[in-house]
């Protein structure tokens, strides 16, 4: 079985503005603000527990509440997303010979919100989000889980990624992988 896997944020979509505005909206009621340049350089593409404590609080309950509020706010900012139409076209062409999957560190809710916004849910045979895995990238768990789901070998798998942690996970999975540019 052949498999193509794509990452969501920064690969299939430019979502940095969506995520930035959603986080900014979510942390404001707690008296915090976030600089756009800082977000782009140090936060974008990372799990919220890896960056929010550095700019807000270490209180787990508040962090969890902020993240929940971010997921709620996400759909309010989907108009700021940009689709990577070239990659969508590539995946559509590959679909005749490959199974297709999204593997993302985004939440299930946010992943489905953006795929639905751009009418792309049916493009993928499998969607794995942060809610479906134990270990985030750079751990290859999500990629390996997708391969196992389709009984695909690494030599028959192609991954599209953009971030350093995603590329490291792709490398560690043993699959072939390509870096996407332009969105980050």
In brief:
The protein is an alpha/beta fold. The protein is built from eight helices and seven strands.
Descriptive key words:
single chain; Rossmann fold; globular; 2 domains; 184 residues; alpha/beta
3D structure, described in words:
By secondary structure, this protein is α/β, with parallel strands linked by helices. The chain has 2 domains: 3-14 and 81-179, Rossmann fold; 16-79. The protein contains 8 helices and 7 strands, in the order ββααααβαβαβαβαβ. A 5-stranded parallel sheet has the order 5-4-1-6-7, covered by helices on one side. The protein has a two-stranded antiparallel ribbon with strand order 2-3. α8 links the parallel β6 (157-161) and β7. The longest helix has 15 residues, at 60-74. 37% of the residues are buried.
List the helices and strands and how they pair.
Layout: E1 3-6, E2 13-14, H1 16-27, H2 36-43, H3 48-55, H4 60-74, E3 82-83, H5 85-94, E4 99-103, H6 108-117, E5 126-128, H7 141-150, E6 157-161, H8 164-173, E7 176-179
Parallel strand pairs: 1-4, 1-6, 4-5, 6-7
Antiparallel strand pairs: 2-3
Helix pairs in contact: 1-4
The strand count comes to: 7
Largest sheet composition: 5 strands, parallel
Q: What is the architecture of the largest domain at the second tier of CATH?
A: 3-Layer(aba) Sandwich
What is the CATH homology-level superfamily of the largest domain? Answer: HAD superfamily/HAD-like
Unreliable stretches: none
Oligomer: single chain
CATH class of the largest domain: Alpha Beta
- Supply the number of structural domains: 2
Provide the gyration radius in Å.
Answer: 16 Å
Shape: globular
- Helix and strand string, N-terminal first? EEHHHHEHEHEHEHE
Q: What is the arithmetic mean of pLDDT?
A: 94
How do the strands line up in the largest sheet? Answer: 5-4-1-6-7
Fraction in helix: 40-55%
Give the termini separation. 31 Å
CATH domain topology of the largest domain: Rossmann fold
Report the total helices.
Answer: 8
Strand content: 5-15%
**SS-based structural class?**
alpha/beta
């Amino acid at each position: 079985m052949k498999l193509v896997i794509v990452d969501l944020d920064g690969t299939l979509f430019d979502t940095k503005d969506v995520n930035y505005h959603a986080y900014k909206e979510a942390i404001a009621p707690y008296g915090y603000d976030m600089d756009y340049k800082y977000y782009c350089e140090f936060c974008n593409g990372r799990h919220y527990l890896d960056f929010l404590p550095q700019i807000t609080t270490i209180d787990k309950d508040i962090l969890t509440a902020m993240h929940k509020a971010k997921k709620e706010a996400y759909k309010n900012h989907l108009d700021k997303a940009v689709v990577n139409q070239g990659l969508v076209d590539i995946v559509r062409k590959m679909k005749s010979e490959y199974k297709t999957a999204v593997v993302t560190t985004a939440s299930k809710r946010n992943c489905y919100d953006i795929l639905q916004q751009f009418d792309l849910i049916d493009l993928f045979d499998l969607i794995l989000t942060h809610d479906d895995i134990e270990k985030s990238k750079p751990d290859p768990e999500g990629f390996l889980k997708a391969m196992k789901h389709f009984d695909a070998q690494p030599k028959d798998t192609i991954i599209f990624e953009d971030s350093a942690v995603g590329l490291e996970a792709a490398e560690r999975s043993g699959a072939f992988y390509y870096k996407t540019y332009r969105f980050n």
